[in-house]
Amino acid sequence: AQSVTQLDSQVPVFEEAPVELRCNYSSSVSVYLFWYVQYPNQGLQLLLKYLSGSTLVKGINGFEAEFNKSQTSFHLRKPSVHISDTAEYFCAVSAPNSGNTPLVFGKGTRLSVIA
Amino acid sequence: NAGVMQNPRHLVRRRGQEARLRCSPMKGHSHVYWYRQLPEEGLKFMVYLQKENIIDESGMPKERFSAEFPKEGPSILRIQQVVRGDSAAYFCASSTGTGASEQYFGPGTRLTVT
Q1: Any residues with CB less than 8 A from the CB of A70 and at least 6 apart, and which?
Q2: What is d(CA A69, CA A67) in angstroms, rounded to the nearest whole number?
Q3: Could you report the per-residue pLDDT of A30-53, keeping only the tens digit for each?
């Protein structure tokens, strides 16, 4: 079984500052990794995903994440945040070798960008 | 291409009533997943369906909850005799089901039990 830990429940950051949202996972098998963003009262939108290949993954809205197998991490980064990045961010895993398995989500990190 | 549709967006039910949540997957998608998001929590998997089949219902409470995805029409998540603890946001996602297929999420139904 897989599990996901998002180490920070809330991250306040000033506008134009860099940000890193941390995600660690545990799994006995190889995994696919995802970051989703949820704006208030909306559904989830995929930011980026790691399936295989290059460990540095670039996504939408200037976000990127790096898969680190030895540390079982998939931290999300953005070099300069905007007010519009204020949202809830969820890290998720799935097990590719088990077919189209459901996603296992972390509890989320609330990013608040301060003007 | 329309995204995943869910209705209603907001649903208020009194304790003991039934709640019916609908999900229309994206065009061409034959796999549907239901997730529940409790306040201050991440999304938890409930059930995974293909047309006319339940593939995995390991996250579904054993009583009062049921789901279907008929050959025609939307997927339905039904909650009978709702209780206050059922108040949550319920999200549906769909995928093509092939390879490393991405799950696309709907806007959710926010259920409030009074």
Answers
A1: none
A2: 6
A3: 888 999 999 987 889 999 999 888
